[in-house]
Design goal:
Blueprint (H helix, E strand, L loop, with lengths): L7 E5 L7 H11 L3 E6 L18 H11 L4 E5 L5 H15 L4 E4 L17 H28 L5 E4 L13 H21 L6 H8 L9 E5 L8 E2 L25 E4 L4 H15 L5 H15 L5 H14 L3 H5 L2 H9 L6
Parallel strand pairs: 1-2, 1-4, 2-3, 4-5
Antiparallel strand pairs: 6-7, 6-8
Helix pairs in contact: 3-4, 4-5, 7-8, 8-9, 9-11
The protein binds iron/sulfur cluster.
């Protein structure tokens, strides 16, 4: 039995012959999913407008490939900037399959008049890119997420961003802005759709498809850089406000980070202290000097745990703001929960 048998996946922007969407759809079908195939044009939007479309059959051809793999397929022409059109396609998909388990937001505006310096960028070109890449993804995600919530489906929404979602570059202002925004939207969706009180073990198993092959769950950071570190054996604690304090941790930004058996909590704590040392604004001595001193102590082959504990307490008690007060948390967690790494 294939792992996606009985699941339904919707992929936007998959009518093109050489695009990512077609490959994603075929792979999902190969893993057992039925497909809802979406594009704004029957043959997809060509990245190179001057290139002839040729004999490519577009969405019907992709559907035929899916069916050749033994799966079912529904196709739909849809401009993802239109909520009404999205609702129509989702209604057809539910009529055919009764559910949507996976959404891959792959559709994006093709390169066009936006690929110029900002001072020459036409407002209309900016709008096309932002409306398609960002607003369109928002609209489709919103509609499909509602279906998942109504039907109590623990589904997956995959948004295709870009390496330009983290670093800006010339002549790509609209594209970069849309992809930066897409990363933010994705993070907000993740935090809103995973229920408060879920455990990290449930998060890994039900929202992330399990650990990567060859990796075993070893430890986790429940609340970003300063929320502490807990071992996998404590992975059944509900992730919520007020549930982690008894263990010296907190939910913080809810940016959960997972360590595998190939990682070491001591390495993570050292990296985090380096981060805090660099981020310290230097206004108060306990944080400015404390983070640097702690980093030097963490660099030693054997941690001076007594001195680290004393230094941590001073930083917690006397730093002006939360950065210095919470910076020792990862170190204290390691000394408390990972003593085997310190021998
Ligand atoms: S605790 Fe806050 S105010 Fe004090 S040095 Fe650190 S970042 Fe600056």
């Amino acid at each position: 039995m294939m792992r996606l048998n009985g699941r339904v996946a919707m992929v936007t922007g998959c009518g093109g012959e050489r695009g990512l969407g077609r490959g994603i759809a075929r792979r999902l079908a190969a893993d057992g999913a039925d497909l809802v195939l979406i594009d704004v044009a029957p043959k997809g939007t060509r990245v190179l407008a001057a290139k002839p479309a040729g004999a490519w059959g577009g969405l019907p051809a992709v559907a035929a490939e899916i069916e050749a793999l033994g799966r079912r397929a529904v196709t739909g022409l849809l401009d993802i900037r239109s909520a009404r059109q999205i609702d129509d396609v989702i209604a057809r998909a539910l009529e055919a399959f009764g559910r949507i388990d996976i959404l891959v937001n792959n559709a994006a505006a093709p390169p066009g008049a936006d690929r110029v310096p900002v001072v020459e960028l036409p407002e209309e070109a900016w709008d096309v890119v932002l409306d398609t890449n960002l607003k369109g993804t928002f609209l489709v995600s919103k509609a499909v997420a509602r279906v998942m919530l109504e039907k109590k489906i623990r589904g997956r929404i995959v948004n295709i961003a870009s390496d330009r979602a983290k670093v800006g570059t010339t002549n790509l202002a609209a594209y970069c802005a849309s992809k930066f925004g897409l990363v933010g939207l994705t993070q907000c969706l993740a935090m809103e759709l995973a229920p408060a009180g879920i455990t990290v073990k449930e998060l890994i198993a039900e929202y992330c498809g399990g650990m990567l092959d060859g990796h075993a769950f070893y430890a986790y950071l429940p609340g970003g850089a300063s929320g502490g570190i807990l071992p996998a054996s404590m992975g059944d604690i509900p992730l919520d406000f007020d549930t982690l304090q008894p263990y010296g941790c907190f939910i913080g930004s809810a940016a959960v980070m997972i360590l595998s058996d190939r990682d070491r909590a001591t390495d993570a704590a050292r990296n985090l202290m380096q981060f805090f040392s660099e981020e310290s604004c230097g206004q108060c001595t306990p944080c400015r000097v404390g983070t640097a001193k702690a980093l030097a102590l963490l660099d030693a082959p054997i941690w001076n745990q007594a001195l680290l504990a004393e230094l941590s307490q001073v930083m917690i008690d006397a730093s002006i703001c939360g950065l210095g007060q919470a910076a020792p948390n990862p170190v204290l967690s390691v000394m408390k929960y990972f003593p085997h790494e310190l021998v």
